[in-house]
Specification:
heterodimer, A: alpha+beta, three-stranded antiparallel sheet, 3 helices, 43% helix, globular, B: alpha+beta, Rossmann fold, 2 domains, nine-stranded mixed sheet, 22% helix, 38% strand
Chain lengths: 88, 287
Amino acid sequence: MQLKPGFILREVCGQKVIVAEGLGAVDFGKLLSLNDTAAFLWQKAQEGDFTAEGLAEAMCQQFDIDQATAFADVKEIIDKWQQLGLIQ
Amino acid sequence: MKHTDYYKVAEHTFRVCSSLSFDNYKPFIVAETADTLFALDVQETTANIPFTQELAQDDEGQRIICGHTHNNEPVFEFWDGEQKAGLLLCQPDYRSNILYLEHGFERFATDNALMILFALASAHKSTLLFHSSVIAYNGAGYMFLGKSGTGKSTHSRLWLQNIEGTDLLNDDNPAVRILPDGIRVYGTPWSGKTECYKNLSCTLGGIVMLSQAPENRIRELKGVIAYASLIPSISGKRWDKSIADSLHLSETQIIEQIPMWHLECLPDAAAALLCKNTITCNQTQII
């Protein structure tokens, strides 16, 4: 999987948000607020091709969390991004 | 015969070389200077410049097609309905630019070209060009935002008719600057269908997002919600990363420093009074 180009992670008053700024993203027409976990995963996913397993592993390294919980969290967030059309 | 004129808008100077002159720019004329933000050369000829389209923006039958040439020079083509009005060919830094005008669309194409150049060339200098109607009251400027057709101009007119001491600063495209000592809103040569080309500025006192509703109601907007309401009203080319970064920086400063509200309203006097009583009551000292 890859994040679709054109979506940018920005910070507004201490809150992390995804804004649609690039060509191909301009019809998104909304902002997506991210909590700290989601923002961390977005930054990891931005590095290139990613998998749910890879992101879950990164999460385990960053946070004090077991593999199964991390994978479930990652799946939930990826599903949401997929529904919103942020992933290709 | 062509002549070169210098204009200063929101403290930014630009140079226009053209055989035409339009009244809306007259209040902004200044003496010749070397310190210009950008220059535009207006040519009254059709140019056939091939370019790759990036994006088309439609607004009430008027269309701007954005793209670039094979040399990566930005291009903007202006259309009024089915008719081409002009083509703006830019340098990548927007400092030196050419407008090719179609006969019959001189003012339309010149205004569009200069608005685009102003917005893009000033983005890195803490300046934003808004789509907004703005009134001046008690020394401060209040901006009304909303989609086309929401009633921004109508709401300004309701202030003018019902609230003594209100003046219209600009009805469509004011400029805002983030300065070390505060945020100011400026009149510009661009004001939509209303002839209001005032070379004046005020401290920005507040921003009100408008939407039509069956009753009048107002609430304050903060943080991400305020940011989301603000950005669709600001001109820019956000798919150019460096411009988007600069706009974002200015936008977050506005969110942090300027109170913002959402006014759901009817087009009536009560809406203007509710708005005025809410947004002007917490003013401390306005210089």
